[in-house]
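Lecture 7 notes: from sequence to structure.

We start with a single chain of 322 residues. Read the sequence below before looking at the structure.
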Amino acid sequence: MPALRAYLFLRLHLLGRLLREVGAVRLGLLGPMLVLAGGRGLLLAAAHAQGQWAVPVLTMLLLASAHRQRADLRFLATSAPGFWQWLAVEYLLLALPVALVLLLFRDWGAALLTIVLAPWAALLPPRQESRSSRHKAHSLFRSEAFEWVSGMRTGGLWAWPLLLAGAVWQHQSPLGPIVALVLWLLLLLAYYGTPEPVTMLVLAARTPRQFLRRRLLLGLGYAGLSAAPFFWLLAVGPAGTGGTLAVGLFWLGLVGLIILAKYAFYPNATHIRTIQALVVGVALLLPGNPVYPVLLLVAVGGLIWQSQRRLQVVLGEQRVPE
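Now the structure, written as tokens:
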């Protein structure tokens, strides 16, 4: 128990340092948006007879994704035998607020499943050890779309069929495919949350505008192909062709903003993930609000300008004079 308390205290200290790195301004914008967006989605799912069961699965997926990307797993494995028990307690504590919301709606089974599933994320292997480099299967994606190559190998290949199965199960209601699209978008958020080494940008040998155009073409192309079955389920359901077109353009637009945000704040991973989360939070929270079109235009224009400006600086610093 003393070791567990020390570990949890250390995690709180690291969280505080991360929040200070994000900054008061970004935190003041990001925090309320994420809480409101996440709370809104949680309340809608908890009040839905079938949607409540998506909450434990989503909670587990989020914890599993965060766990596999932790940088301290190798250190803990060598210095603290049985460390997975600490992680299981940590993940259980993180899942408790979600379970409490489900209990408020008398979703006893979903709340219990949330508590039962969360600790099991601690047993998953770290991302870099998930598969030996000598035994990696040939990827269906182009090597330059490295976000997709890595993301599909570290979870996407099993998460996508599960989301599709859930969407097919609930295809009579537009909520099923839409929830699946939101969850798939959150997974893509993890794909584009880690900046690649600067040498990969230099080897591309393109101007910032050409580089961004190529990244957007690859990212939106693969995103559109992966989301096509969900769009088809929407089109044949109550949403119809018109509703599906609107949802599809909105969803692909968010993917484009996520890609732009990555290079607007390259190579600071904390700032990249903060802005990406802010963009997604605002997009999911404010549709229908009178200020939404203005915020959207500002976000699009600002990220395009900032990403080109940032890439110009980075590529200029790495250019070797002839």
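Residues 129-137 have pLDDT under 50 and may be disordered. Keep this in mind for problem set 3.
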